[in-house]
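Input record (one chain):
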Amino acid sequence: MPTPRMRKVNSVLREVLADEIERLTDPRVELVSVTGVETSPDLRRAIVYISTLDLDRGEEAVAALNKAAPRLQGAVARQVRMKYTPHLEFALDTGVVHGDRIDSILRRIATDEPTPEEE
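The corresponding structure, as predicted from the sequence alone:
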C-alpha cells in the first residue's frame, strides 16, 4: 500500500507524463491514456501504465513510449522537483484490456449471440 507521499508522487508523474505524451508527434502514441504510475520507494524507477483506444496497437504504443522515455524523463526533471528523476518504463494496463473483453462478452450474452468459444 503506497504512502500518501508516494500516491502524490505517482499522481504528479501521471499528470506530467500525460501532458508530455500528448505533445509527441509519433502516430503510434495517438489516443494513448496514462492510467497509472507506480514509483519505487527509492524514486529511481517508475512503471507507467497506459491504455489505447485501439487495443491492437497497444504493444506498438508501449515500444514507442519506451523509445521516447529519455525525452519524457527530461520533461519530468524540468517540471517536477524530486530527489531523483525516475527511470521510466512503460507497460500496457492489462486491466483495461480484460475489462473490454468482459464487456464484449456481457454484450453478447445480452443479445444472445454466441461467443467465439461456442462457435
